Amino acid sequence: MTLKEMKPGQSGRVRAIGAGGPLKRRIMDMGITPGVEVKVIKTAPLGDPIEIHVRGYELSLRREEALQIEMGD
Amino acid sequence: MSYMIALAGNPNCGKTSLFNELTGSRQRVGNWPGVTVDKKEGTYKKDKEIEILDLPGTYSLSPYSAEEIIARNYLVKEKPDAVINIVDGTSLERNLYLTLQILETGIPTVIALNMMDEVEDRGDEIHIEKLSRAFGVPVIPIVARNGRGIWELMEKAAETAREKRAPMKLPVFDKKLQETIDQVKALLEAEGEPDSGWKAVKLLEHDENVREQMKEDLKNQAGKLTAKRYGQEADLEAEIADQRYQYITKAVKDAVTKHSAGCVETKSDKLDKLFTNRILALPVFAVIMYLLFACTNSENFLFLGIPSPGIWLAGVVESLWGGLTGLAERALAGASPWIYSLVIDGIMGGLGSVLGFIPLVLVLYILISFLEDCGYMARIAFVLDRIFRRFGLSGRSFIPLLQGFGCSVPAVMATRTLESEKDRKITAILAGFMPCGAKLPIFALFASTLFADNNQTLVTYSLYVLSIVMAVLVSLLLNKFVFREGTSNFIMELPQYRIPTLKSVLIHGWEKVKGFAVKAGTVIFVSTVLIWFLSGFNLNSFNGKNAAENEDGSIMCGMNDSFMASVGNVIAPVFRPLGFGEWRPAVGVITGWIAKENVVVTFAQLYQEDVTEAYLEEYFSQYSPKELEELGFEGGVYNAEAAGDIYSENILFEGSDENALPHMRDDIQTKAAAYAYMVFNLLCMPCFAAVGAMKRELKTWKETGRAVAVQMAAAYTAALLVNMVGGLFL
Ligand SMILES: Nc1nc2c(ncn2[C@@H]2O[C@H](COP(=O)(O)OP(=O)(O)O)[C@@H](O)[C@H]2O)c(=O)[nH]1
Ligand SMILES: [Mg+2]
After folding, report:
1. Residue B603's domain spans which residues?
2. What is the CB < 6 Å shell around ligand 1?
């Protein structure tokens, strides 16, 4: 499962980041690293991007970016 | 001995607030991630030996946006004597990630633990001692907003700078990784690379900037070293980020006692439910934008029958300026005609037309600042991203474009906060299309003289809409044909909603207007004098011919024979297909590049010669005494002295008289041509100040030239279409 498939209110742990290059680096710099717990807060009114809660703050990212974040224990 | 202390931290951690408290300086603060667009310096209030520098916020020392690069380059190249690393106590983990990287640079560092008031409100407890031990540097809790703890902080920072207390090495990485780093470091050291420790880590992180500046051979050797330990496919980048976060997670777990485990719903969350509500978000956004513009330039504020704050303020400024002009007129009563003409028509008239809309820009920016500071702007970007992505941009492009409604200079500068290079370049081009404050007088002049039959508001609004439509079209085209490769992302922090302090909103708004006001005071001042000179003189002014011919011996000449006419005549043919191929409108376009407000100034000056005493007398003879009194003639009796002023005040710029400026009608004959002229001025190259800002953001003149070419092409095409298609209907 990836973060993209998670529904608002769901939470889970990050297993791996699929992307490479600057995108991966950016995702990890913002605190989304393997093992961290994230919770999906909501989807933007037009369906994209989504808002998640991670490491005590709110972060938004697009679905296509969320697709790169693999979830599961 | 003086010291330089830099403030570094994530966006929104309170750097600017702290900077203001420490220096007493007027520095803008904001809640838009990355609002500090440039580094700014100040002197410490209590010790003039200490210089303080406010850096743009950054999440990591692997920079993405242009402004993050500013911060990083400063830290690693210019090396301050000490860094105060500001850490937002309410989201410690993410903030401390940057801390670890700052510590790796070896610069003496002190941690300022900010937002302690919010931490306490939540009932959380942070054990300062434990945190300090985990990171090996002093940690001082502060509240930047009200100054709590900042003197202790500065004492510690000054001490650290004086004693050059480099941070100690922390056991962040595991044995294998640390050994690899040490080996690469030894390699770099042997080659005489400076900052070998920091660069070794960056090299393993695949940092583009660092790699670019390193010798091929060194890179290969380092590559081999890692491959030997981790295999060919090694992803050390992820490994390093991961291990840093692991270290932080552990340290924070030790040092923080949370009041409640789960997420409690804060006020901020409740507000967010409204502003990003599935159904209400867009209507709420529309209402807020409507209010924004209603406050700025509406004659009938919220249908209350009173002018909006912006218009009201503009009226006050104008009448003050009118009084001042009157004084100057009296003082110069006996002076020679050309001095009188220079001061009254050139300088006072020129500056006056600019002063008229500075209040509009100021009110707009104060309101934008409020929206930024309170955190709503980030939500707008969140809500609009989907729409902007359709056009190949990101929701974050909204803010520079909105600022473009005030002035293109801060708008172009604000593109720095965009992460993707493609977004940055396109947005910088589009910002020039927006109807900035300086373009509004152009619309007002044309709408009132050439579109006098009551659809003026419609004319102005249609231009607003057109600017947006063009922005969308041009963005689509650029995405399709020019920037096919680039990608953009939308990984953005959504900061907590906070009620901004009045002081910070005013400072913030003023900071943006300041550049604009300074520009008005210098560029426009010089250019009005220049226009005045070019349009009143020619070669014969200086060989005595004019003096011999003129009855009063003046060396000035008629506008039609002036230098300006010659220049205008040369380029006018270019504009013939657009419907305004005469020299005066052409001159208007050129002076508009010096500053857009000049278009109106130029028109007023160029068509001034229509307004002779005889013309005025005939013109006003159509009015009854009662109407004359209403227009401002004392006692309802026509008098030649006041006529000129009353004419330009009431008829030229605000009145609705088709007969005003007869020559303007000759030059721009059809409504289609008049509209095309507005369209061209709206979309073509912005003023030179904005082009300068574009050069700063786009780096090279070549890129800037290309951007301007796009703007020119868009303007020409749109104006041509308007003139051709509009000619069929209007
Ligand atoms: N409650 C609270 N708010 C703060 C504090 N320091 C700054 N802020 C607010 O946090 C927001 C961001 O501050 P700013 O100084 O612009 O941060 P910068 O982006 O790091 O320069 C502003 O709305 C400030 O008013 C603080 O100590 N406590
Ligand atoms: Mg700031």
Report:
1. 523-726
2. B 9, 11-17, 29-31, 35-36, 57, 114-115, 117-118, 143-145, 373, 498, 500-501, 504
